[in-house]
Amino acid sequence: MSKPKAVVLLSGGMDSATTAAVAVQQGFDVHGLSFRYGQRHALELQAAHRTAEGLGLSRHVVLNIDLRAIGGSALTDDIAVPKDTNLSEIGRRIPSTYVPARNTIFLSFALALAEVIGASDIFIGANALDYSGYPDCRPEYFQAFQRLANLATRSGVETGLSVTIHTPLIQLSKREIIRTGLALGVDFSATLSCYDPAPDGAACGRCDACQLRLKGFRELGMEDPAPYQSHTVSGRREETA
Amino acid sequence: MSKPKAVVLLSGGMDSATTAAVAVQQGFDVHGLSFRYGQRHALELQAAHRTAEGLGLSRHVVLNIDLRAIGGSALTDDIAVPKDTNLSEIGRRIPSTYVPARNTIFLSFALALAEVIGASDIFIGANALDYSGYPDCRPEYFQAFQRLANLATRSGVETGLSVTIHTPLIQLSKREIIRTGLALGVDFSATLSCYDPAPDGAACGRCDACQLRLKGFRELGMEDPAPYQSHTVSGRREETA
User: Fold this and answer.
1) What is the model's pTM?
2) Are the C-beta atoms of A9 and A110 separated by less than 8 Å?
3) What is the domain class of B5-188 according to CATH?
4) Distance between A231 CA and the closest CA of chain B, angstroms
5) How many CB atoms are closer than 10 A to CB A219?
6) Which residues of chain B have pLDDT under 70?
């Protein structure tokens, strides 16, 4: 019997890599989906590709979409990415790196792809604990999307097949995500979480995404294997502060 | 006081043109939103542009998205558009012109644009009566999207401003849509509803969209002012059958 198919959103970061590994481990034939959305760093697409290869996914689809034409975010526009935010402040407000309706847009395309390939499972590496305060990362948001998905598609209407939105990391801390990924063979050196990497792909170590990631590795007593810009001393910056 | 802004999805067809006219009449500063999504006929974008100009909209945004890479529809792939379906059969099954998750994708972008421009109203010309049997045209689908929208966005979370999805045509027949549009000054000769128009923009008169539209004009005892390919005799084809 062939494996059931699943669509997994791949951002290139450590959360989506771990999520894809979870989907593989659960026995799905995983189709990775990434977006070229006018983000400043296409480096994350390279990271997504490395992850897809490393996990042996059967397919990695990259779609072009035009979020720059909408604007409104530090990740698509010429707005500065916040750096050195106090860790205790991260997640308290919605930061300028929030891309309006991004997860809704990404999940909509994932739903379209799922319908075309005959998948009824969609995985997204969202995280409601050590997260950046984005509204579309909360469990109630994903429940609402799942409800929508089952009203939106031909398969739902004609076959009664229901779509499931899987968020396996939603209640995990960064530390737990790293531990899960390591247990499943994720190569975190190939992932890129930084919002503002150098042209060679080295992470800044100072944006919210870097800070949360470094904290996770630090709590495990490990060094993040991904490349960082030298001044961040491989993630040990905060320990000496 | 400046008018409240609204985003209106503009497909180039008569339903979205009437919807935009309703939004203008309700006092909104209307921002039209259309998509270049790999559809076979970019002619519909020209029709959307004519509609936006005719109604004096303050802005018409066209986004490039990549639905062809997903496939699965007669509107994006090399699948034949169904012709001459018996009128009583239209809407009973989901036809091959259904684009997977299209309204979900379009509404997601509308939500993003609404958030960036500070609009809390989104209009879509969906229609659940004389419709083509698409699952994402039903009232319960739009209710689910509105619920999602209010969980998805910064404005919903930070300001409690709620997003409203307006579907002013949802319970209207094609005849009523035409009557509404005419009363609001919509120029239906500038609109294009056909799924398979000739290169010069003349409608085929035989696809589901043409048949439903022609039926509406016929019931009003009017001739559709839009151009049709000659063999369809300006929409009087069915009357002689």
Assistant:
1) 0.86
2) yes
3) alpha beta
4) 33
5) 14
6) 1, 39-41, 72-79, 81, 89-98, 130-133, 154-161, 231-241
The closest CB to that of A108, out of B94, B101, B115, belongs to B101
Q: Do A116 and B156 touch (CB under 8 A)?
A: no
ipTM above 0.90, yes or no: no
d(CA B81, CA B229): 16
- Which strand (E) or helix (H) includes residue A49? helix A43-54
| Predicted local confidence at residue A239, as pLDDT | 40
Domain ranges of chain B: 5-188
Considering A71-85, A188-202, B96-110, B125-139, the range whose residues carry the highest mean pLDDT is A188-202
3-class state of residue B122 by DSSP: strand
What is the rounded CA–CA span in Å between residue A175 and residue B184?
59
Q: Do B70 and A113 touch (CB under 8 A)?
A: yes
**CB of B144 within 8 A of CB of B108?**
no
Please enumerate residues of A whose Cβ is less than 8 A from a Cβ of B. Answer: 61, 63-67, 69-72, 94, 98-105, 107-109, 111-113, 115-116, 135-136, 138, 140-141, 144-145, 147-149, 151-154, 156-158
Structure tokens at B4: 């409240």
Q: Give me the DSSP letters along A68-79.
A: GGT--STTTSS-
Fold of A5-195: Rossmann fold (3.40.50)
Residue B30 contacts residue B8 (beta carbons within 8 Å): yes
Distances from the Cα of B39 to the Cαs of B45, B84, B85, B98, in angstroms? 10, 21, 22, 12
In this structure, the number of other CB atoms found within 10 A of the CB of residue B240 comes to 6
Backbone angles phi, psi at B230, to 5 degrees: -60, -35
Contact B235, B218 (CB under 8 A): yes
Note the residue count of chain A. 241
